[in-house]
Specification:
Layout (H helix, E strand, L loop, with lengths): L2 H42 L5 E5 L2 E6 L4 E7 L4 E7 L3 E12 L7 E12 L7 E7 L9 H22 L1
Antiparallel strand pairs: 1-2, 2-3, 3-4, 5-6, 6-7
């Protein structure tokens, strides 16, 4: 083997092995989130028919029981929110933006939330914090994800209104 071939193999390994390790870790983390979701379903007597996992979060909906679910899984504690869509009049995406002190045209997203508006004062608004700059490291596709889930939750709300 020539030196060029050996160097090529070493460089290729330097990129492939770490990528393989990262992909395997993501698969393992996703499986753990899925397992945690199944245990939540059993504990709360729900069946999440549509869900999505990313980072350490799960968002989902149970169309049969008309419930929305949001979980932030952490090493110290788990934040679990279940919203009964029967008590919700609508939902929307809220995006908080911070403007630079030096250049007012520069803005950064500081938080993305899904807000569920309660039907009356007995059922106050509830919020799923999909992204927060204080907690999350990077902003990825959270805005697109939040908008897609608002559409799904709205579909569930329409089913409730049609049934009434």
């Amino acid at each position: 083997m020539s030196v060029t071939t050996i160097v090529g193999i070493i460089l290729l390994s330097a990129f492939i092995i770490p990528a393989f390790i990262v992909i395997q870790k993501q698969k393992r983390d996703r499986k753990l989130l899925e397992k945690f979701l199944r245990s939540l379903e059993t504990e709360n007597n729900i069946k999440v028919t549509d869900h999505e996992t990313w980072s350490n979060k799960i968002i989902g909906i149970d169309y049969a029981n008309q419930k929305a679910l949001f979980v932030i899984r952490d090493k110290t504690h788990n934040e679990i929110q279940i919203v009964d869509l029967k008590h919700v009049s609508g939902c929307s995406v809220e995006k908080s933006v911070v403007t630079s002190e030096f250049d007012k045209s520069v803005q950064a997203v500081s938080a993305i939330r899904i807000r569920f508006r309660g039907r009356d004062k007995a059922h106050p608004d509830q919020v799923f914090t999909v992204f927060s700059e204080d907690i999350d490291m990077n902003l990825g596709a959270e805005l697109r994800l939040a908008e897609a889930w608002v559409a799904k939750f709205s579909k569930g709300l329409r089913r409730i209104q049609d049934a009434a």
